[in-house]
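Dear support,

We are seeing what looks like truncated structure output for some complexes. This example has two components. We would appreciate it if you could run it in full and send us the complete token output so we can diff it against ours.
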Amino acid sequence: MHPASSIIVFTTFSGMGFGLIAMLGLGAAPSDGTAGFVTCALAFILTSVGLASSTFHLGHPERAWRALSQWRSSWLSREGALAAVTLGLFAIYAVLWIFADDRVAPIGVLLTVLSIVTVYATAMIYGSLKTVPRWQTGLTPLCYLLFAAAGGALLAAALSSLLGAFSETAVLTALGLMVVAWVAKFVWWGRADRTTLGSNGSSPETATGLGHIGKVRLLEAPHSSPNYLMKEMVYRVGRKHARKLRLLAVALGGAVPVLGLLAAIALDGGAFFLVVAVLSHLIGMLAERWLFFAEAEHSVSLYYGHR
Amino acid sequence: MTTLPAQTDKSLGLVIDLDVCVGCHACVVNCKEWNTGGYGAPLSDQNPYGADPVGSWLNRIHTFEVDASQGGGCSGSEAQILADGKDTRVVHFPKSCLHCEDAPCVTVCPTGASYKRSEDGIVLVNEDWCIGCGLCAWSCPYGAREMDAAEGVMKKCTLCVDRIYNENLPEEDREPACVRTCPANARHFGDFSDPNSNVSVMVAERGGMDLMPEQGTKPVNKYLPPRPKTSPVQSAPSDLVALAEPEAKGFLGWLDAALEKMG
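Here is the complete output from our reference environment:
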């Protein structure tokens, strides 16, 4: 699939933003008004940048509000509606926190639940597509959720440290989630490497219905230069390229953050290392998401000579 | 509403006869010609006379080779196939929207722009509501939907909804443009919910088939498989060059033999 930068930024930033909201809802970060302002503002910026970015690839962004209407059947619509509800409630939570110094715990817990469901809906936009066998697994939402949680926890730990309230619990939470998230991603990659276009039972033979005669191959394409379908769905990435990017994703997205978190524990503070960990994790996640899209193969490729 | 109708009054669609299609692309061109001026936004082209022309088309023809002599592995070049005398067939394969009963492109649409009509089962896009997110194209295994680069909305086959009910057209023209134009009569239009309709009878008699049934889309359009070959495949002679040389007779024959003797 074509790795559109707008969608990569959308899933990465909004994932981390909703991860942070989920952590704040559970009581992460110091409870004074200043801390509330800084953390809530950052959560709003991350989610807003993500959601705004998602509209950049639209043919008609001015009609984006219509996407809130079809939550009965469409995961994309559910994602939009859930994000709007979560951010609306989060605004109330933030105002009460900043101006009344009151973190209303029940609202916080509700925000955590809503954030989880929102990220789940984001993942299901892709995880529910039968046409992309690599994505169609419960592991896809699992990875999205764990990475959102790990990113949010890491950010919460870094913010706490920056605000002068270093919390070892926050750092250990981030460390645990980070490790679990990457274990899940390795399992996802392991499955992805065994998954082919034919894994859902489709082949050029079933695509043409000519399998009863023999083996089918494309003799002549219907058009002489790549069209929308080929640019969007028959995108292919070089194996060597992909391996390097995987290494980069693991190093920047996983290894550096883990080292940063360990350094913070060792130094009993170390806000600098945590900030580096956050930035590195974000870049690593962009690489991970790029691969998520670029490596995915779509069933329509079967009509274009792939198997 | 992007939920699918529980059932449709009619089930309009196409039968495409793979035994008959000659791959002339007339249906492709007539489809574009009608639909660029018909329902919705025009079908734009980008850089049509340049090095990399690209454009929106609702109907495309692939050409496949089916190798009956081989179960596995890939066939070689065309010359190799000829020399080997393999039992291969060339099948021209028109592909447009199949107007699926369980159309995934409809249910994934976040805006309600994609819908399946309960009266006749045609899958359409309301272009005034479409935000051009492209998710419907991602959900379609057949590549039936193409985003129009100029208009920023999704285009797809409408089954020529603006022809089939159009009382301003003579009655014989009230069928999809691809069907009307096909010089080989490889495309047929009708109602699959009626077991006695032309299309239902053809499907029953010829073993009409679904494309990628494993995707669970329940396509309405059906494809008729190529008929079995009536004569066995003969191996091509291995020395094709000799066949092309004329047989020398008379004076030329004498000259040929004399020259041959001289070495």
